[in-house]
Specification:
By secondary structure, this protein is mainly alpha-helical. It folds into 2 domains: 25-175 and 403-444; 185-397, no CATH class. Helices cover 71% and strands 6% of the residues. The protein has helices at 4-20, 23-43, 46-79, 82-116, 123-152, 170-174, 177-208, 212-248, 250-257, 290-296, 318-347, 355-363, 366-383, 404-435, and strands at residues 157-159, 165-167, 268-275, 280-287, 386-388, 392-393. A hairpin with a 3-residue loop joins strand 5 and strand 6 (392-393). The longest helix is centred in the middle third of the chain and has 37 residues, at 212-248. The radius of gyration is 23 Å and the shape is globular.
Length: 444
């Protein structure tokens, strides 16, 4: 049935891609809920609190499905990737345990207070619960990203004579500079996702003529936050993350850009198709010298091409990496443009009645999901052929006793479960959106 390593990678890629559709919205909404409740406390206007209650309900549904879809992914560390876990568990086990013990339980506990405790708590205490939920969800994200950052840029470790990784500096591991860059970029992306979803729901209500006050509020909050965080996502965080790749993974940068030859004044390829067999880009549209500046801060900087690296160090799927990177960047630019137009119309007081723009906002909410998925594909395809960059190859981390048939069988099972969960999730979310912000009264 083929190479077991291929099926292990496919299963993990499938489960983690599906799972992350949910945490990115919960982390983004956690921040937006804090903003809404802060505005409600500051202005005393009930409409902000009403909007916050609605999005807390959406958060709860999303969080529950995210937990369920995350469980199979966690088990794969012991089933599909037992060698990786055995070799590196002494390091990455620290951050994974912290994610579970501190962030996850903090997030879960305060979600309960937010959903059912508003009548029991004072407005300020309920706002405090929202802040705690935000901190918990973002802490959870940081500990996961620290784990991934070690795989991208390993620090704070030593290797025993038996080849086992052990932690030598907890603080070097936790404060990995790669983690800071990756975390800032990722968390801003979650707010962009949340903002597009908020704006899309507001656009839907406006197009249907439902809940006009809440429709306008959601549109305004969505486009303001969406524009600010889309810009910050590109610069400075995207720029910083790109420079980290250029410094520590130059072969990945070359593959992302489809660059085969080295030299100064490196062109930025806007459009083109990588032809790996002939080591060139077909039908390119280039911007002269821009890649040198973006990667190293100087137009004359030398940017290495793939030919400067041994073939066995090239990313294993250059085409996938190249296209994922360009999809991420292209959609990121489109997100800024959409939110800039929406913000301009909102400033002029015309957004709630501009039906063409409302349709754009309503239909555009999948774009940040696609861009985020492409961004993680860039990180993971770019790291290949390594599980721990430069130290442990992916082929050495898989479980030697789990064969292809078992992995295919369980993958089909996960696909079936996720299909059912997906329909249930869409039904519950659709019901909440249809019922609107005032559809549920708070229970004492």
């Amino acid at each position: 049935m083929g190479d077991p390593l291929f099926w292990h990678r496919l299963q993990f890629g499938f489960t983690i891609t599906y799972h992350y559709l949910f945490p990115q919205l919960t982390m983004g909404l956690a921040f937006i809920i804090v903003v809404l409740k802060a505005l409600g406390l500051k202005t005393g206007e009930a409409r902000y609190m009403e909007a916050a209650r609605f999005w807390i309900r959406i958060f709860g549904i999303n969080f529950a499905v995210g937990v369920v879809t995350g469980i199979p992914m966690e088990f794969q560390f012991g089933t599909n990737w037992a060698e990786f876990s055995r070799i590196s568990g002494g390091v990455i086990g620290q951050s994974l345990a912290m994610e579970g013990m501190f962030a996850f339980f903090l997030e879960s506990s305060f979600l309960g207070l937010l959903v059912w405790g508003e009548k029991k708590l004072s407005p300020r205490a309920h706002f405090g619960a929202a802040i705690a939920l935000w901190i918990g969800s973002w802490l959870s994200g940081y500990f996961i990203i620290v784990t991934n950052a070690f795989m991208q840029h390993p620090v704070g470790y030593t290797v025993t004579p038996e080849g086992i990784f052990q932690l030598t500096s907890f603080w070097a591991f936790i404060l990995n500079p790669w983690a800071f860059a990756q975390y800032a970029h990722n968390m801003l992306a979650t707010v962009v996702t949340g903002s597009f979803v908020v704006a899309a729901v507001g656009a839907f209500w406006a197009l249907k003529g439902l809940y006009p006050e809440q429709a306008r509020l959601n549109l305004k909050v969505g486009v303001i936050l969406g524009f600010i965080f889309s810009v910050l996502l590109a610069f400075p965080t995207g720029d910083i993350a790109g420079k980290m790749v250029a410094k520590y993974q130059p072969v990945s940068l070359a593959a992302m850009e489809g660059r085969f030859d080295s030299g100064p004044f490196a062109d930025l390829v806007m459009v083109g198709q990588p032809n790996v067999a002939e080591a060139r880009i077909d039908n390119p549209i280039r911007v002269p010298a821009v890649l040198s500046f973006l990667a190293y801060g100087s137009f004359s900087a030398n940017v290495k091409g793939l030919k400067d690296f041994p073939r066995d160090q090239w990313p294993t799927s250059i085409e996938m990496l190249y296209y994922a990177y360009h999809i991420m960047v292209g959609l990121g630019t489109l997100l800024i443009l959409i939110m800039a137009i929406g913000l301009l119309l909102s400033w002029k007081g015309r957004l709630a009645t501009a039906r063409p723009m409302l349709w754009v906002l309503m239909l555009a909410f999948p774009f940040p999901y696609i861009a985020t998925t492409a961004g993680w594909a860039v990180a993971e395809f770019g790291r290949q052929p390594w599980l721990i960059y430069g130290l442990l190859r992916t082929a050495k981390g898989a479980s030697p006793t789990v064969h292809s048939g078992a992995t295919i069988f369980t993958s089909l099972g996960f696909a079936g479960i996720y299909l059912v969960l997906g329909f249930l999730f869409l039904y519950l979310i659709g019901r909440e959106v249809a019922h609107g912000p005032a559809s549920h009264t708070q229970k004492a």
